[in-house]
């Protein structure tokens, strides 16, 4: 089975009856691009740019960032690349930034909130992305930890200002749906963004109030919980009303149950780790779109994640 999945890895992601579901890779460095493409990835659905900061002991300069984004954009050869702005804080600590300790770091100044506090970090990143996007129309930009409409508007305004300064074109702008409030206002957000990408790791953590790293809660912190699935459905429905698309870049996209349920909910892109690309494509190919829609509808009515997993595994 694994061999068959591998042999067919370069076919476009789709259900058995040909409904497209793009399967992209989560990679952080241009050096990993070749491996992802060879594994069958149809693009990069999440480039976690904080890894550029985490893997060294000083802030990467604007030029260094530009080089890395440029190398990634070029390596994709026209396939989509979604660059996510810095998501520091919570579980991702960068010691040399000298950030204040917080009692509840997952609920504090993390992600886009830190970027607003620290334009000295955010603006160089936005400039680097704008310059690369000027030469590579496949570049998309996405903001993490968006909780309110104002969060998006403020980030967008900063990017627009940078674009004016550099005279670079408009590019697709998206937000991560990883805070329940964002899913609940998806209708308003969908009028202003170009796309959504659901971060199921954080969305699950914040919906169930379970630390995503807590060892004792690990089994229960499952994105297949119907409460999480309902928020994803709200997001997809809102996006569809406004002609926008939804991807998923959290861990649930790469698990075989998760991929099927998410596709059934109407998700158009699954961004997964490189080794999962072929197996997710193979799982999608075994079911029809109608089959998946029915499965997702039933999943929403289950009492818990375990029941959803049992349902899908049949
Ligand atoms: C997520 O929260 O699901 C996500 C993809 O972002 P990260 O894991 O980097 O927080
Ligand atoms: Mg996240």
Automatic annotation (TrEMBL):
Which superkingdom does the taxonomy of this entry point to? Bacteria
User: What are the alphabetically sorted keywords of the record?
Assistant: Cytoplasm, Kinase, Magnesium, Metal-binding, Phosphoprotein, Phosphotransferase system, Sugar transport, Transferase, Transport
Q: Does the keyword Glycoprotein apply?
A: no
Mind listing the GO molecular function terms for this protein?
phosphoenolpyruvate-protein phosphotransferase activity
Localization of this protein: Cytoplasm
What family does this chain come from, according to its entry?
Belongs to the PEP-utilizing enzyme family.
What name goes with this protein? phosphoenolpyruvate--protein phosphotransferase
Q: Which organism is it from?
A: Deinococcus petrolearius
What gene, per UniProt, encodes this protein?
A: ptsP
């Amino acid at each position: 089975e694994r061999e068959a999945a591998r042999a067919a890895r370069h076919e476009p992601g789709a259900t058995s009856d040909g409904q497209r579901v793009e399967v992209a890779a989560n990679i952080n460095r241009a050096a990993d691009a070749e491996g992802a493409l060879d594994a069958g990835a149809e693009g990069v659905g999440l480039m976690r740019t904080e890894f550029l900061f985490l893997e060294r002991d000083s802030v990467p300069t604007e030029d260094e960032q530009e080089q890395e984004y440029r190398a990634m954009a070029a390596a994709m050869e026209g396939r989509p690349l979604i660059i996510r702005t810095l998501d520091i804080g919570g579980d991702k600590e960068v010691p040399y930034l000298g950030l204040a300790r917080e009692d509840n770091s997952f609920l504090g100044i993390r992600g886009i909130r830190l970027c607003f506090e620290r334009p000295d970090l955010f603006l160089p990143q936005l400039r680097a992305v704008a310059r690369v996007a000027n030469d590579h129309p496949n570049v998309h930009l996405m903001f993490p930890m968006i909780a309110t409409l104002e969060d998006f508007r403020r980030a967008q305004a900063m990017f627009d200002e940078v674009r004016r300064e550099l005279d670079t074109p408009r590019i697709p702008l998206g937000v991560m749906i990883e805070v329940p409030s964002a899913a609940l206002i998806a209708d308003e957000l969908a009028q202003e963004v170009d796309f959504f990408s659901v971060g199921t790791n954080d969305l699950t953590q914040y919906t169930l109030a379970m630390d995503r790293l807590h060892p004792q809660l690990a089994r229960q912190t499952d994105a297949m919980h119907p409460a999480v699935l309902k928020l994803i459905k709200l997001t997809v429905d809102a996006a569809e009303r406004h002609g926008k698309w939804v991807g998923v870049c959290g861990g649930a996209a790469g698990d075989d149950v998760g991929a099927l349920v998410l596709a059934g909910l109407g998700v158009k892109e699954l961004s997964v780790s490189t080794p999962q690309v072929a197996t997710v494509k193979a799982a999608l190919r075994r079911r029809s779109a109608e089959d998946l829609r029915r499965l997702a509808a039933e999943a929403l009515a289950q009492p818990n994640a375990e029941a959803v997993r049992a349902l899908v595994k049949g």
